[in-house]
Amino acid sequence: xxxxxxxxxxxxxxxxxxxxxxxxxxxxxxxxxxxxxxxxxxxxxxxxxxxxxxxxxxxxxxxxxxxxxxxxxxxxxxxxxxxxxxxxxxxxxxxxxxxxxxxxxxxxxxxxxxxxxxxxxxxxxxxxxxxxxxxxxxxxxxxxxxxxxxxxxxxxxxxxxxxxxxxxxxxxxxxxxxxxxxxxxxxxxxxxxxxxxxxxxxxxxxxxxxxxxxxxxxxxxxxxxxxxxxxxxxxxxxxxxxxxxxxxxxxxxxxxxxxxxxxxxxxxxxxxxxxxxxxxxxxxxxxxxxxxxxxxxxxxxxxxxxxxxxxxxxxxxxxxxxxxxxxxxxxxxxxxxxxxxxxxxxxxxxxxxxxxxxxxxxxxxxxxxxxxxxxxxxxxxxxxxxxxxxxxxxxxxxxxxxxxxxxxxxxxxxxxxxxxxxxxxxxxxxxxxxxxxxxxxxxxxxxxxxxxxxxxxxxxxxxxxxxxxxxxxxxxxxxxxxxxxxxxxxxxxxxxxxxxxxxxxxxxxxxxxxxxxxxxxxxxxxxxxxxxxxxxxxxxxxxxxxxxxxxxxxxxxxxxxxxxxxxxxxxxxxxxxxxxxxxxxxxxxxxxxxxxxxxxxxxxxxxxxxxxxxxxxxxxxxxxxxxxxxxxxxxxxxxxxxxxxxxxxxxxxxxxxxxxxxxxxxxxxxxxxxxxxxxxxxxxxxxxxxxxxxxxxxxxxxxxxxxxxxxxxxxxxxxxxxxxxxxxxxxxxxxxxxxxxxxxxxxxxxxxxxxxxxxxxxxxxxxxxxxxxxxxxxxxxxxxxxxxxxxxxxxxxxxxxxxxxxxxxxxxxxxxxxxxxxx
Length: 823
Description:
The protein is α/β, with parallel strands linked by helices. Helix content is 28%, strand content 14%.
């Protein structure tokens, strides 16, 4: 690293010395640092990237902007940041004290307005300026004391995100409130970062060591970008196969989810030394905000709670407690030295029961039963609690703003009143909220109810819980990151890290079928020759991911299902021909789109010298995968098969278990649900809306062509949840499933370079009637598919080159599902 170096020994003199001595006296009195290890001076170095590095020898490294006006204090031969601007070292500035002591001290110094800012978690920041500078919108919420910022700018190179992070830190450092910015990120799945397996693929490894390695890999890169909080992992038990967020989970088994949760969070949160020893919290740590307490998965009919149609969780098998196992016995009971996940995100859903045995019929962030009674009192969670995003927003039928204020939508409910309710039940932070005045209003409400002393005590307790994440990760001392490191390690990539991630991806690939052993260890170095059909996707109309997003037309597409460069790493590839002049209708930008007639498929004669036909297939895609409604608003079934499915079997409910009050009120207006008439959300007799039925035709056509040419047909399914395979299984020779989009990992197995070892972290249904018969909150209660080879596609099933896997992983986890937390 180049730059100007200045040694600072005997730094204080004259007036500064007097101030330093006052600081010494004050610190000894308040912080108890008598007898602390003596330093031998410190050295400042210009980083060359707009910030200064302070080397404290055997003490903590500091970094700060030389233009921010922040000064240093020297004490006992070490440098400390003078956040207070007084020249006196107060406890929270003293990095030798514990995070607990420092957070407690600072929480006691903050104004209610400053605490209100801490209790806001910003809305998504998706875009960066060309020069990565701080925008006026960002300055506005930073000036309002907001310090938790959601970095959703994953579409930009890592070095740009690092640069923006530094500029944001410099901005707050120059302000009156110098608390650093705590950047967060959702899981990124390889987008401008290393492509480690997603949760479902990690679960398929049945190996917590792989999850821990993945967590450590994610933490390293996130910290290099300036991110200190990970909005994950998602640890909901995925008890319904239709649920669109299934892919973000560790599958449907509580015990497997528990163990993978514990391992991944340990990897995310623990700083380790060069020998791999767990040091606990440190500058390599990433705060883990596990989600979504106490469960998001059991949405009625598989619907998803980002939408109004999916806001109700139902428990027809009384499985409420089982859904908490990954939190209580996993995230809250880590093996590593950080002890517990530091933060938790509440679910959107209303846990519905007519007798209200799961508490008031409101979203989890407003529920006294779920947060105060269960999370805080029964299970003793001491970390911070944050709502999921946009639960304070008013309903906006015109789509102007996202909203998920389930249970408190109407009447006289306002964003301020919702914030007050959330805080009153023990929530510390409001996801997606840039407006601290809502939290100031919540304080005033609490003061009116409990008195100023108790209200202040409660707000300071929230501030302390939130500040622990800042002190534990070291960003008060060293918030700046090196964009050059982000560029070299992440943007350019590290071959060793990429190889480790791909190896982990391979371990998460499950081989379901291998008739005749067509997939086997490669005999030599020659690449097999593979015919890879192009994938044609017809035009369709789809719902947006939120209720506020309009339905949109998607143009037809056609091309290789995986990049040619990736395929050619493992195969000698031949494929179809797409006409140069496309004849489909123009898209909304005026570009020509393909018609199916523009595609010329290879013939049996064309593939006579091929070794196999390789079909890379997308799973069935519902037009409205979250809300399961037509554009007109009618409920329809969510389907996991390609062909149209009509929900008219005897097991389909004719009356929904949950629904809004029929009189149009919200549930918060009712003291009891008993006797309240509700709307019927049943989809009985309705037909699914699948947008890619043509994918099945392409599988069947490829299988028929392979038979005509006397070649094996191998299908790689890119799935994010269970699906029906009865529509094509008997026609193909081999099936592999990739659960995090890493079709390359599956290609390695097909090419014989790696032996498959993955196991299903879920059941694969016999058919859609089996899907309807299972209960939304029950694990592993489905009638599973049996293939032409006689194998049952049940939980913990998978094949290797020798046949069905029956190892220690299977023996450990293929037991009766747990039903209650041990804690």
